[in-house]
């Protein structure tokens, strides 16, 4: 396989293309024993590419759907001592989460060893919808729903317009549906905080056409070819430059 070195590293499943570029800049990548530079190309059939002295391996591409329980971090190294979502995946290949759910949130998360696939889905230009069921303390009014749908100020920046509707409304608890096209840090929690409500539970039930149907919490399965095609059919081609990784919702 021929191509830019960062693309070859991402294709191997070692990390995303963006992370590969960082590794090259840090001098941690070599081609045939010589330090690589951004813009260099190579051929995996002829050249030896190493990252931190370890030869790049071309792994089989893995695409998984996991029903994440609460209490698991969507990172590759824990920041709080909590277990990782990858601890639930008992396979020989190394995989990483595509985007994130915060440790307290539950539901659908994708994992892969394909950096290009991950970047295509988390890039801001992606149009893949993500739907969440959100339990909130308090009585959320129709006016609150209109405000949330139009966008609220989070970190001095308005959130994009989104779809918010009431699934069930009680005197002290409201169940909402959110459909988002972006993934800012703890976005749903902070949007609701901005209008005076506290979230008690978040479940992501859908990414694009993928759902949790038939998959119990803590279980995972492989994506089908049709599901892969449906995910990659609609996102726009990522623009050149830095991508913005999605944050925990």
Q: Stretches where pLDDT falls below 50 for ≥5 residues? A: 235-245
| CATH top level assignment of the largest domain | Alpha Beta
- Element string (H = helix, E = strand): EHHEEEEEEEEHEHEEEEHEEEH
Proportion of residues in helical segments:
10-25%
> What Rg is obtained from the alpha carbons, in whole angstroms?
20 Å
The total strand number stands at 17
CATH superfamily of the largest domain: Pseudouridine synthase I, catalytic domain, N-terminal subdomain
Which whole number gives the mean pLDDT?
Answer: 88
CATH architecture of the largest domain: 2-Layer Sandwich
Could you explain the architecture of this structure?
The chain has helices at 5-11, 17-25, 115-122, 142-150, 187-194, 225-233, and strands at residues 2-4, 29-31, 34-35, 41-43, 49-51, 54-55, 63-68, 96-98, 106-112, 130-137, 153-154, 157-158, 163-169, 173-180, 198-207, 210-211, 220-222. Helix content is 20%, strand content 30%. The strands form four sheets. Strands 7, 8, 9, 10, 13, 14, 15, 16 and 17 form a nine-stranded mixed β-sheet that branches. Strands 3-2-5-6 form a four-stranded antiparallel β-sheet. The protein is elongated, with a radius of gyration of 20 Å. It starts with a strand and ends in a 16-residue tail after the last helix. The protein has three domains: 2-55, RNA-binding S4 domain (Structural Genomics Hypothetical 15.5 Kd Protein In mrcA-pckA Intergenic Region, Chain A); 63-121 and 213-233, Alpha-Beta Plaits (2-Layer Sandwich); 130-207, Alpha-Beta Plaits, CATH 3.30.70. The protein contains six helices and 17 strands. The longest helix is centred in the first third of the chain and has 9 residues, at 17-25.
């Amino acid at each position: 396989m021929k191509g830019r070195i960062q693309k070859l590293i991402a294709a191997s499943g070692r990390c995303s293309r963006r992370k590969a570029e960082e590794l090259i800049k840090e001098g941690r990548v070599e081609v045939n024993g010589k330090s690589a530079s951004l813009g260099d190309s190579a051929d995996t059939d002829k050249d030896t590419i190493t990252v931190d002295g370890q030869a790049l391996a071309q792994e089989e591409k893995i695409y998984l759907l996991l029903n994440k329980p609460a209490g698991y971090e969507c990172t590759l190294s824990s920041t709080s001592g909590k277990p990782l979502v990858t601890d639930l995946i008992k396979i020989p290949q190394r995989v990483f989460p595509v985007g994130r759910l915060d440790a307290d949130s539950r539901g659908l998360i994708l994992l892969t060893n394909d950096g290009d696939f991950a970047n295509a889905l988390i890039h801001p230009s992606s149009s893949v919808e993500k739907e969440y069921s959100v339990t909130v303390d308090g009585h959320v009014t129709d006016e609150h729903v209109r405000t949330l749908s139009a966008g609220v100020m989070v970190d001095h920046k308005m959130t994009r317009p989104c779809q918010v509707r009431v699934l069930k409304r009680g005197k002290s608890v409201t169940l909402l549906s959110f459909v988002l096209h972006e993934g800012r840090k703890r976005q749903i929690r902070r949007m609701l905080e901005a209008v005076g409500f506290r979230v008690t539970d978040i479940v992501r039930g859908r990414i694009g056409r993928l759902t949790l149907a038939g998959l119990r919490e803590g279980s995972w399965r492989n994506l089908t070819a049709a599901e892969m095609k449906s995910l990659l059919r609609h996102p726009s081609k990522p623009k050149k430059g830095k991508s913005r990784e999605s944050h925990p919702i």
